[in-house]
Each structure stands twice: as structure tokens, then as C-alpha cells.
């Protein structure tokens, strides 16, 4: 007997010692886990959220969310009823525990042990939030352990209000709605802060089983759970018995989604915005769409509407020809409208930004800027006649004018630009050096492959419409600091500004504003019939449709038709052609770009005051005779206003007999042997 007692006490002591040791080890493990959790720092609370786009007027134009609706609102924006209803049904001791409800855990563990599997959970709001952020929803012990660890980290580093705010912004309420704001909009078409007690208690019951408890799927189940929630709120003292009864009796009015029409505003523009935001934020497009950003854009919805309407009215129904158009503010570079094709639903390919097409004569203004920087003037005379150029490799390049029309005399740069004379352009390029021309194009933001060859003067390079219009906009503004942009500001989901557009004052490129203005004003000549010569100015076909002064340049290749033009307020570019690069054979299709440009520009300018091109301080305007390049005289039939540096203004005045002195002009042409076979140009 005594031996038995001794053995019993020995076993008890050993058991107590083992238990004590286990407790000590457990505390050590818990301390180690705690230290490890602290060492990892605060876990990220980032989760996908809807990205919202705003137009230039500050109004929402669209949202990006994929198949899910997500918004983030602060706890202060949530009605007290939704917080209380959620606590009542999910975790009423939330503010009293440290991430774990021991009583619920013990009860659930007993149930699970009896069933020998995970059948009942005891997750607190903190644990559920951890699961929503970092884990899957499978019912395994491994997942539960991870969930507990993440819950510990959340409780260590974040306040209770931050946790409940995050939980209510991420929990799933069914029908693709994540978070209370998305759920409120989906079920009741209102913001969460406007929810009534009845509506809040109904929504609070859905996360337990989004399909089973959705009032849109099963109103009976939803109403039973709502009743339980209201009863718990009354028991916990959140509401009075009277409010409980009133809320139970309310008949809720749910939003009807059956008649919704999915029509995206300016889809090509939004595609460009998303790409631009991804570059700015140094992330990918998908992360922008689900990052919960608020992106403030430059879109002018009126401009976009007029542009799309002009496309519909200009291009014949059934035509396979495509188009691309973009409008920018002439002084800031803000993109106000953009259409990358005729119909985004049929082709999402953005021809404004992604298509590289031969630009034709639209490249010439940049050439003449480069020439004016090298002692040329708008009145520099070069002969327009069939000319061959011997290249460095021994080959001969023989460009031609449109339909082989030539002046067969000297013409001014101003007239050459208005008539789009190719011989003048190639001669100028060879004279100043193609490399200098390429450098000028880079100054105006033109990137990509630009071959330094004589034919570059005729637009043989392939460049996007977006870059070309950006370059024209910089010419009109006279600044390299401005650049085309679709975004003015980006804020994160908490309203913190993460990006704000500003002028690119760090650029090493510099545009001479006086020379830029000279070219800008020269481009108004494409609509001035005073510059008609051996053929009409290139804008003659649409000049009668224009009610104010514009400048611009058209361009044509076998497969491309371009028109880029501007006022002091807006710059617009249009390209038309076939995606498969087939030739444009119909005359009417070659006119689409000009017609679309003219109709859109006239419409968007209607509400605006008439603006003039204001000369820069370094230039002076003089009237010259377009044919001779001399100062206009009383006996000369035509005159044209031209701007240039004061020291370049001619001193000779056009004489009456010069208006028909073709013999003298032809004699001068015979003396220009230097034009025939310019050999030295640099590749």
C-alpha cells in the first residue's frame, strides 16, 4: 500500500513537472512567435479596389474593376448601424479580445474533435480579415494556423478601428461586390453612408453565405438572418426593441439591374490613360485597374462626343477603312479626346498610340524648323523642278512632286510648305544635313527609327499619330517643356496624391519659340489661296468650311492619309487608312482625314472666342509678294503676311512688271547648277 502511494505521488510529481515544462516551452514558443511576428513588421493591407476615372470636369467617366466591384471608404463614412450589425453577428467581443475569442475557440474545437474534422469555425473579425487578405478559404488546420499568425500580426500593428474598417471594405457580399460601399451600391444604388438600419442589417447577414443569404437570390433566408441580427443588436444594447421591430417590418427596395446598359465612355482614351498610369506608377496595367486609384484625366466629354459623331458621319457605312484621331490643348498638351478606331467593341487596337505609319508630308514643318535654325528664312528661294540627288553610296534619288506638277522656277519656303513641294523639301534636307533634321525631330518628341536620308523629308519614316500631334502641339506652344498627357493627377484609395502632372522643365531639349512661331504661322498658309501657285494650296478643299484661322499640314502616301492642324486653342490630328496597308484607291477616302478634321475642329471651336496666333517678341510680321518673296508693293496683285527675324526682312519691294516676268525667273533657274546633283550629305 505504501509502495502504491509512493508510486502515485511520484507519477503526479512527474506529471506536474512535465506540465510545468510544457507550459514553459509553450510560453517560450509563444514568445518566439511573437518576437518573429514583430520582426516581420506590419503586414500589408493592400487589396484590389476599383480604380475610378474622372473627366476634365471632375465628374466620373468610368471605373475599372474586372469582374469585381471594390471601393474603399473610411470607418467615419460608414453608418454606425453597419458596424454594429456586423459586430453583433460576427464578433461582438471584437473590441475586447486580442485577435482571438478563446471561448468560441474552445467551443468550436470541441465540436471539431467530436466530428474528427473541421465543421465549425470560431474566427474573429481579425482572423477573417487576415484570411481575406492573405489566405484561401479552405478548411484545414494548416490554414487556421496561418490565419492565427496573420491575425496576431494585424493586432500587433494596427488599431481595432483600422481592422474593422479594412474588414468591411474587403468582405464579400455576393454578386461581385467586395466591401460595404460596393454592396450598398449594388443592392440599393446608394452610398454606404446613406444606409438605413434595415438595409444595414440585411447586408450584414450576407457574408456568412453570399449566395444563400443574398436577398436577390433567396429573400426568405435573407430575411430570417436579418431578423437574427436585429435581435442580437437589441440584446447587446445597440438598438431599442422599438427600432428592432420597425426595421424588421420595413419592406426593402432593391436596385433593379436588368435594364443596365454597359456603354463605356471614350474606351480608346481610357486604354491610353491606363497605360500612362502604369508607366507613371511603375506597375502593370492590371495593378492600375484594381489598385483603387482615383485617376483625374484630361478628357473633355463634349470633344469626345463630337469626334465620335464626326467619324460616324464622315466615313461611309460598310467601309473597311480605319481611322485614328486625337485632340490636344495647343498650350498644355492635355488630350481632350481620342479615338483609336471606328469602333472599340469591334477592334480595341489603338491606332493613335500603337500604329506606326508613314507620315508623308506632315513631317515637313519639322524640317523647316531645322532649316530656319540654320540661316534659312520663310522667303528662302529654291527651285521647284525635276531634280536628281546623287547619294553617298553612288545611287541616284529622284523624288517627284504630286502628279509631277512643278513651278519650274524658284519658290519661297512659305509657298513650298503651303503647296507641299517635295523638291524644295528634299533639297533643304540635303542642304542642312539629314542628321540635323533627325535631331530636330527628337527635339519635338519624335522617337523611334528615323533614318537620316534625303527621303525622310517626304515622311518615309513610320511614326505614331500621337507623337506627331504631340510634336505639332509643341511647335504651336513653342515649348519643349509641355508634352502630351491624359492624366493630371492620381490619388490612392486613401486620397493621398501619388502623382501630379507638371511641366518637364528638366528636359535637355530646347525649342526656339521665335522659330517655332514662324513655322506655326507659315502653316496657316495651307488655307490661304494667296499662296496658290503651280497648284492650289493643300487645304483648298476644306478652306471654305473654316470660319477662323487655323494652321496645319496634310500628308499622303499610297496607303495613308493624314491631316494635322491647329488653332491657338486646340491641335488635332487624323489618320485614315487600312490596317493591312493596302493602297487607298478612292479619292473620297483620301479626303476623309481632312473632312473629319474640319468638321470636328469647327464644332469644338463654336463655343470659344476667336483667338489669334500671338507673335513672339523675336519676330516681326511683314507683307510679301508670295511669288517673288519681296516686300509687297502697290502694283503686286497678291500679298501674304509672313513672320521672321527683323534682320531677315527683305529690303526690295515687288515691282509691277515682276508679276509676269517669267523670262527673268527662268534665267535665274538656269544659273542654279548647284541644285543638280548635290553630293555631300551625311548619313
Strand content: 5-15%
For this structure, the CATH topology of the domain at 357-481 and 507-610 is Beta-lactamase
Helix percentage = 25-40%
Task: Return Rg in Å.
Answer: 37 Å
The main sheet comes to: 5 strands, mixed
| Unreliable parts | 115-120, 659-683
- Looking at how many chains there are and whether they match, the oligomeric state comes to single chain
Number of helices: 22
| Number of E-type strands | 20
Architecture (CATH level 2) name of the domain at 357-481 and 507-610: 3-Layer(aba) Sandwich
Provide the structure class: alpha+beta
> Can you tell me the overall shape?
elongated
Q: In which order are the strands of the major sheet placed?
A: 2-1-5-14-15
Mean pLDDT: 85
CATH top level of the domain at 357-481 and 507-610 is Alpha Beta
Distance between the termini: 113 Å
CATH superfamily of the domain at 357-481 and 507-610: DD-peptidase/beta-lactamase superfamily
Amino acid at each position: 500500500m505504501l509502495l502504491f502511494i509512493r508510486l502515485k505521488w511520484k507519477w503526479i510529481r512527474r506529471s506536474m513537472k512535465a506540465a510545468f515544462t510544457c507550459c514553459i516551452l509553450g510560453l517560450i514558443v509563444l514568445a518566439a512567435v511573437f518576437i518573429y511576428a514583430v520582426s516581420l513588421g506590419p503586414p500589408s493591407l493592400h487589396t484590389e479596389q476599383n480604380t475610378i476615372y474622372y473627366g476634365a470636369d471632375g465628374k466620373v467617366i468610368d471605373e475599372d474593376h474586372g469582374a469585381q466591384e471594390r471601393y474603399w471608404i473610411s470607418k467615419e463614412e460608414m453608418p454606425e448601424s453597419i458596424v454594429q450589425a456586423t459586430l453583433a453577428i460576427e464578433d461582438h467581443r471584437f473590441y475586447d479580445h486580442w485577435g482571438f475569442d478563446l471561448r468560441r475557440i474552445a467551443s468550436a474545437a470541441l465540436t471539431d474533435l467530436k466530428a474528427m474534422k473541421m465543421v465549425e469555425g470560431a474566427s474573429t473579425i481579425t482572423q477573417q480579415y487576415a484570411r481575406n487578405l492573405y489566405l484561401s478559404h479552405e478548411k484545414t488546420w494548416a490554414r487556421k494556423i496561418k490565419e492565427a499568425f496573420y491575425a496576431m500580426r494585424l493586432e500587433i500593428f494596427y488599431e481595432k478601428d483600422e481592422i474593422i474598417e479594412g474588414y468591411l471594405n474587403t468582405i464579400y457580399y455576393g454578386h461581385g461586390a467586395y466591401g460595404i460601399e460596393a454592396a450598398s451600391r449594388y443592392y440599393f444604388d446608394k452610398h454606404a453612408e446613406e444606409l438605413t438600419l434595415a438595409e444595414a442589417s440585411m447586408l450584414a447577414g450576407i457574408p456568412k453565405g453570399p449566395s444563400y443569404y443574398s436577398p436577390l437570390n433567396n429573400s426568405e433566408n435573407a430575411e430570417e438572418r436579418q431578423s437574427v441580427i436585429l435581435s442580437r443588436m437589441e440584446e447587446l444594447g445597440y438598438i431599442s426593441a422599438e427600432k428592432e421591430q420597425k426595421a424588421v417590418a420595413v419592406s426593402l427596395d432593391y436596385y433593379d439591374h436588368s435594364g443596365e446598359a454597359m456603354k463605356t465612355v471614350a474606351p480608346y482614351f481610357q486604354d491610353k490613360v491606363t497605360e500612362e498610369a502604369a508607366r507613371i506608377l511603375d506597375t502593370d496595367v492590371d495593378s492600375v485597374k484594381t489598385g483603387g486609384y482615383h485617376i483625374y484625366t484630361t478628357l473633355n466629354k463634349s470633344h469626345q462626343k463630337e469626334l465620335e459623331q464626326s467619324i460616324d458621319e464622315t466615313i461611309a457605312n460598310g467601309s473597311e477603312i480605319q481611322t485614328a484621331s486625337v485632340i490636344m490643348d495647343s498650350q498644355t498638351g492635355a488630350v481632350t479626346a481620342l479615338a483609336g478606331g471606328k469602333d472599340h467593341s469591334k477592334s480595341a487596337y489603338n491606332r493613335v498610340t500603337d500604329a506606326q505609319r508613314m507620315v508623308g508630308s506632315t513631317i515637313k514643318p519639322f524640317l523647316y524648323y531645322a532649316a530656319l535654325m540654320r540661316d534659312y528664312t520663310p522667303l528662302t528661294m529654291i527651285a521647284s523642278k525635276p531634280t536628281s540627288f546623287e547619294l553617298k553610296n553612288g545611287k541616284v534619288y529622284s523624288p517627284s512632286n504630286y502628279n509631277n506638277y512643278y513651278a519650274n522656277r524658284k519658290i519661297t519656303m512659305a509657298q513650298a510648305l503651303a503647296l507641299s513641294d517635295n523638291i524644295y523639301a528634299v533639297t533643304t534636307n540635303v542642304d542642312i544635313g539629314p542628321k540635323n533634321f533627325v535631331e530636330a525631330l527628337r527635339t519635338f518628341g519624335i522617337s523611334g527609327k528615323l533614318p537620316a536620308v534625303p527621303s525622310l523629308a517626304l515622311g518615309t519614316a513610320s511614326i505614331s499619330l500621337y507623337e506627331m500631334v504631340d510634336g505639332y502641339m509643341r511647335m504651336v506652344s513653342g515649348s519643349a517643356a509641355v508634352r502630351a498627357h491624359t492624366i493630371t493627377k492620381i490619388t490612392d484609395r486613401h486620397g493621398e496624391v501619388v502623382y501630379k502632372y507638371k511641366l518637364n522643365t528638366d528636359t535637355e531639349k530646347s525649342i526656339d519659340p521665335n522659330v517655332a512661331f514662324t513655322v506655326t504661322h507659315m502653316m496657316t498658309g495651307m488655307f490661304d489661296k494667296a499662296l496658290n501657285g503651280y497648284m492650289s494650296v493643300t487645304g483648298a478643299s476644306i478652306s471654305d468650311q473654316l470660319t477662323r484661322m487655323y494652321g496645319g499640314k496634310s500628308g499622303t502616301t499610297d496607303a495613308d492619309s493624314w491631316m494635322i492642324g491647329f488653332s491657338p486653342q486646340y491641335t488635332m490630328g487624323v489618320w485614315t487608312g487600312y490596317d493591312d496597308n493596302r493602297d487607298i484607291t478612292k479619292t473620297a477616302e483620301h479626303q476623309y482625314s481632312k473632312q473629319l478634321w474640319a468638321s470636328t475642329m469647327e464644332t469644338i471651336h463654336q463655343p470659344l472666342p476667336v483667338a489669334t496666333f500671338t507673335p513672339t517678341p523675336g519676330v516681326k510680321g511683314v507683307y510679301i509678294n508670295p511669288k517673288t518673296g519681296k516686300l509687297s508693293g502697290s502694283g503686286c496683285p497678291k500679298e501674304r503676311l509672313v513672320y521672321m527675324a527683323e534682320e531677315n526682312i527683305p529690303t526690295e519691294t515687288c515691282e509691277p512688271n515682276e508679276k509676269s516676268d517669267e523670262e527673268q525667273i527662268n534665267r535665274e533657274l538656269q544659273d542654279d547648277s548647284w541644285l543638280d546633283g548635290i553630293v555631300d550629305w551625311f548619313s
